[in-house]
Amino acid sequence: MTFCGETNSIKSARARVLVVDDEEDIRNLVSFNLRAAGLDVLTAGDGVAAIERIRTEHPDLIILDLMLPEMDGVSVCELIRKLPEAQHTPVIMLTAWATERARTVGLQAGADDYITKPFSPRELVKRVQSLLAVTALRKQGESKLTVEHLTIDLESCRVTADGRELDLSTEDFRTLTRLFEALIRRLGPSQNYHSRS
């Protein structure tokens, strides 16, 4: 069992990512890097087109700009969370709005992650892979992962060690899941690692 974005498993799954941005250069840059990582890519240049593609194409993950014509990214994200076919689809906000207030608004609208422009394409791909892998585990009914005395709850984003809950920020949780991924790749399925729903 792999966790949090092992590249080979994602390549075989051919997950589809919808890139929503009104700037063609950004769409092309993001699309190129995602395809290079083995992902299928859909694109949309505005919010209305994005909703239509989500309803008809059912992407596995959405990268969403905040400042869009027709319908802004916050409204798009809120609508996504109301769509039965997409309410659990991971959303990454990719925007030039770098203020803490903008980040809060994006996350409150239902985004799973928030990346500001200018951005590292490599970092974006890593975050996409991580979210796709966590989503795949959830679809398999696996919500808790345990190594020795450490348990990661994917549903509530809580971590406990020896039964005590750790106070982690979103970034801390993301970092821990990446370390956990590396550990699982080295351990493989064994009595030291198990997952449960």
What does this molecule look like?
This protein has 197 residues and is of the alpha/beta class. It folds into 2 domains: 7-137, 3-Layer(aba) Sandwich (Rossmann fold), CATH 3.40.50; 141-196, no CATH class. It is 43% helix and 21% strand. The protein has helices at residues 7-13, 24-36, 47-57, 73-80, 100-108, 121-139, 170-187, and strands spanning 16-20, 40-44, 61-64, 91-95, 113-116, 144-147, 150-153, 158-161, 164-166, 193-196. The strands form 2 sheets. Strands 2-1-3-4-5 form a 5-stranded parallel β-sheet, sandwiched between helices. The chain has a 5-stranded antiparallel β-sheet with strand order 9-8-7-6-10, with helices on one face. The longest helix has 19 residues, at 121-139. The radius of gyration is 17 Å and the shape is globular. The two termini are 14 Å apart. The model is unreliable at 1-13 and 185-197 (pLDDT under 50).
